[in-house]
């Protein structure tokens, strides 16, 4: 299973110029291929002394009165008498060799000599990381570079050195590949260096999705790492048992009060409904202005008083009977029709 490579955080490579202190006999110096090396041969050059530098048996330079005479590699080398340094540019692998410095008195007698070893190395470049998940959930992380002679590797997790709790015991952080345990995740960094350069690469990695189970199922004890997405181990069927609810003793004494409050609320509700219904019934029985009335006319008789002249009509005497209005229900067939009952009117003289 392949793991997704995380976010690139830092990638750095440094090389190009090296300094080496060659004032001690037997010094080991290194120079980057194609770069420059500066060798500290003495504190400073004295006019009263003569200096000769050899590569194997070939003389590289001869300094007399602070003047460099006949250098074999004059086009890419120089000597600074004020600080006693020898600079060699555009290094090639042929420059790797043993160098010997001889110091003479002004009379030509040998004062001292010492040797140094110069080694040219290709610098480290293009550091990369790759990771993959193994069958049991471990993660293997590999580190590589585009070049570099005699590379040395160093690994960290979150800026700290890896420990045995994070690494499998068969791994070493000085190799280009490590294997992380199942639970490990975070920012992993690989540093690659040699004597003339240093490169590093950091990536954030996650675990491979495994979980550790430790249980007993069907009488069998299981203790191992398994892939979480499709494991059915240690999953017991669940059985639902009926439950009974026991009243809380702290609230048992409050039941009579609660029952009384509830009864009062129900009574108020019933009374309210009865009042509303009675009010509606009373409103519906009151007559309205639009209700029709049945008129009953009584018999009215007009009698003429005697002793009056015929020529002049006397005011008649009118007797009024009782007029009664009786209310009757609104007709449903024709609400606009009216029915009148008229009494018979007789006039007597």
From TrEMBL:
A single Gene Ontology CC term: membrane
Membrane-spanning residues: 255-278
Superkingdom of the source species: Eukaryota
Gene3D superfamilies linked: Immunoglobulins
Coarse class of the protein's main subcellular location: membrane
Ranges for region Disordered: 307-349
Leader peptide range in chain numbering: 1-16
Subcellular compartments: Membrane
Keywords: Glycoprotein, Membrane, Signal, Transmembrane, Transmembrane helix
Domain Ig-like intervals: 123-206
Protein name: Uncharacterized protein LOC117555969 isoform X3
């Amino acid at each position: 299973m392949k793991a997704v490579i995380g976010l690139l955080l830092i990638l750095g490579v440094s090389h190009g110029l090296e300094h080496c202190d060659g004032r001690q006999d037997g010094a080991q110096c290194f120079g980057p291929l194609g770069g420059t090396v500066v060798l500290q041969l003495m504190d400073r050059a004295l006019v009263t002394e003569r200096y000769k530098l050899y590569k194997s048996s070939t003389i590289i330079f001869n300094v007399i009165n602070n003047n460099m005479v006949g250098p074999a590699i004059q086009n890419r080398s120089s000597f600074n008498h004020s600080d006693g340094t020898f600079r060699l540019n555009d290094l090639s692998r042929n420059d790797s060799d043993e160098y010997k410095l001889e110091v003479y008195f002004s009379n030509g007698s040998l004062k001292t000599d010492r040797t140094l070893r110069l080694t040219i190395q290709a610098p480290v470049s293009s550091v990369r990381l790759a990771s993959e998940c193994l069958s049991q959930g471990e993660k293997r992380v590999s580190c590589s570079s585009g070049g570099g002679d005699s590379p040395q590797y160093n690994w960290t997790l979150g800026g700290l050195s890896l420990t045995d709790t994070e690494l499998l015991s068969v791994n070493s952080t000085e190799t280009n590949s490590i294997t992380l345990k199942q639970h490990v995740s975070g920012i992993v960094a690989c540093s690659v260096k040699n004597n003339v350069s240093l490169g590093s690469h950091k990536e954030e990695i996650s675990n491979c999705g495994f979980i550790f189970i430790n249980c007993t199922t069907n009488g069998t004890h299981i203790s191992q790492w398994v892939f979480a997405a499709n494991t059915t181990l240690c999953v017991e069927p669940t059985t639902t048992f009926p439950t009974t609810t026991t009243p809380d003793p702290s609230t048992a004494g409050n039941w009579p009060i609660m029952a009384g409050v509830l009864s009062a609320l129900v009574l108020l509700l019933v009374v309210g409904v009865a009042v509303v219904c009675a009010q509606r019934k009373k409103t519906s029985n009151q007559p309205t202005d639009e209700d029709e009335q049945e008129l009953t006319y009584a018999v009215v008789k007009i009698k003429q008083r005697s002793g009056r002249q015929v020529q002049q009509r006397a005011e008649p005497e009118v007797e009024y009977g009782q007029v009664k209005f009786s209310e009757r229900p609104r007709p449903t067939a024709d609400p606009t029709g009216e029915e009148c009952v008229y009494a018979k009117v007789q006039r007597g003289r």
